[in-house]
């Protein structure tokens, strides 16, 4: 083995050693972030039980948080559905009010000379004057000599 091969092997070994040290440092930093306090709290066997209890409590908290998010999501969906129902009802009532305020002529019920009786109004043909009935019911009564509305 020549000098150049030995240098390449040393560089490779050094590269592997640096990667292992970086990995170990990353793992140690991650463990320290999980179990704050002193190095002993993080790594000493005397604190194994406390670390296990802390890990279990975090797991339970994660479960509670997940349940809370699901419950909140359902509640938001329910509120959205109820709001949409309310808005549909308001739109329907607005249409009904608009129809009550201006019902249009409605179906034609009869004619008598220049008068035309519709479901919701009476019109006089030559002038096309409109007389709204405003909820009243009307009909033509034909007599022998007198006709009435």
Enumerate the strands of the largest sheet in spatial order, edge to edge or round the barrel: 1-2-3-4
Low-confidence stretches: none
> In total, how many beta strands?
6
Radius of gyration: 44 Å
| Overall body shape | rod-shaped
- Find the structural class using helix and strand composition: alpha+beta
Q: What is the helical fraction, as a range of percent?
A: 55-70%
C-alpha end-to-end distance:
126 Å
- What's the number of helices? 3
SSE order: HHHEEEEEE
Instruction: Report on the biggest sheet.
Output: 4 strands, antiparallel
What is the residue-mean pLDDT, rounded to a whole number?
A: 85
Query: How large is the share of residues in beta strands?
Result: 5-15%
Could you name the key traits of this structure?
two-stranded antiparallel sheet, 149 residues, four-stranded antiparallel beta sheet, 6 strands, alpha+beta, rod-shaped, 14% strand, single chain
